[in-house]
From TrEMBL:
Pfam families: PG_binding_1 (PF01471). The keyword DNA-binding does not apply. Residues 138-194 form the Peptidoglycan binding-like domain. Gene3D superfamilies: PGBD-like superfamily/PGBD, SH3 Domains. This is Peptidoglycan-binding protein. It comes from the Bacteria. InterPro entries: Peptidoglycan-bd-like, PGBD-like_sf, PGBDSf. SUPFAM superfamilies: PGBD-like.
């Protein structure tokens, strides 16, 4: 009890005086951050806008990444084939995806599993650097495979985007039915047979 009384007494009679100038940040004190005129403000705004647009545009740039064969271009997801694109072709995406399909800027669709994330090389989002899809991997490439296996009657689960045991067994059934090496891994041969 004495301790509480002593603390109360000392807190009540202490006088705190803070000097705000002592806490002033002087690191940038000599710099003048204001632009000299309104023309500079407009120029800086234009530079920022162009930077943002160029970043957004490069995010939609992609390329065809197949096992060497051509990628079929379709009129809609799972629609009629209207053309093909060679491996390595730079493409422009609209940013729309549907059930494992990616829309091109011209309105046609391609399998998202065969589209690289940036112009000139890279990995498919959600795939592996080697391009193989196997147990433990997750992402849009896995969703595309799950949807395609469902369309063909080999997969009855929910397209989660995770390559788990259900997807592995579905891939194995598909590989066995199509005379492929049965390893449960979606490599170039299995991918070519799927799409």
């Amino acid at each position: 009890m004495e301790t509480l009384a002593y603390i109360h007494l000392s807190v009540a009679h202490e006088e705190v005086t803070l000097n705000p100038d002592a806490y002033e940040v002087t690191l940038f004190k000599g710099l003048n951050w204001k632009p000299p005129s309104s023309a500079w403000i407009g120029l800086l705004s234009a530079i920022m806008a162009l930077s943002i647009v160029s970043l957004a545009n490069s995010a939609m740039a992609a390329y065809v990444r197949t096992n060497g064969s051509s990628l079929r271009v379709r009129s809609s997801p799972n629609g009629a084939v209207v053309g093909s694109l060679r491996n390595g072709t730079d493409i422009s995406l609209s940013g729309r995806y549907s059930g494992g399909w990616a829309q091109l800027s011209n309105g046609n669709w391609v399998s998202a599993a065969w589209v690289g994330g940036s112009t000139g090389g890279g990995t498919t989002g959600g795939g592996s650097p080697s391009g193989l899809l196997r147990f433990g991997i997750s992402g849009p490439g896995v969703v595309s495979v799950q949807n395609r296996l469902r369309d063909l009657g080999y997969f009855s689960g929910t397209s989660t985007g995770y390559y788990g045991s259900v997807t592995t067994s579905s891939v194995r059934r598909f590989q066995a039915a199509n005379g492929l090496r049965v390893d449960g891994v979606v490599g170039p041969q299995t991918r070519a047979a799927l799409y």
